[in-house]
Amino acid sequence: RASLSLTIVIMGLLGVALALATGEVYRQQTLDNHRVAMAELLRLKTDDLLRELEAKSRDLALAIQSEPGFQRAFAARDMTALSRLMDNQFHQYFETANVIKIEKLRAFDINFSFVAESTEGSQLLGDGKVLCPALIQQARTRQGPARLQTISDLCPVADRLYHAVIVPIGGLRPKGYLQIFTDPTHSLAGTEKALGMPVKITLASGRVIYKSEAWFPPQAMERTLVAEYPLQTPASGKVMTLGVMEDIQALHEKLSMTRYMVMMVAG
After folding, report:
1. Predicted pLDDT at 23
2. Is 112 left (phi over 0), alpha (psi -120 to 50) or beta?
3. Is the dihedral of CA 260, 262, 263, 267 positive or negative?
4. DSSP 231
5. Helix, strand or coil for residue 205?
């Protein structure tokens, strides 16, 4: 009788332990599946925002080309006039209406030789030095109708990250190209409003360049679930990581309550 009672007790304890272990496995799977769903939403929204930023940069390039005297100044390679016309964009609609954050504007001839640049904007992008060489090389080697297309990429420069767009000058018969540099953080910060979750943006170096005010402090991270999406370029690899956070305290409480109920039944 004693051995039978001991066996029953041991089997009961094993049953409770199994219920506890199974509950923890299901809890972890639930959180992992939710994290994957958050990361996918972040990826989709990030791609949408970057495409939107490219479209706005293209509109800015077309607006510059429509400025009175731009085509004449470009044909004459008048650097002073071109710089003045590009500087004007820092005080017009795209910048003043907070549509995009312009960092630099540059003009090239049809062979991608430097012609002129704006004097306003980031000093890191000045002095006519070669920037985003992989993007320039990609644009230079295109043939036929491909040379009419707009191309863009993320471009790291001195521990800063820029979004660069190359747009042809001259319509169907390109005479040169405009390169638009903008701050991608300004656009990607909109992920917070779109997804309804706090956002953190970290460069590949580990430097945080944007963090929502609602981002939880380190001591409260145990009640949150964080999903990340790395942004990569063919030339530089991972250049930025976006993270979103969700408060899962209510989910934790529901899972804990379910676990306790299962343990009570098992007991």
Report:
1. 66
2. left
3. positive
4. E
5. coil
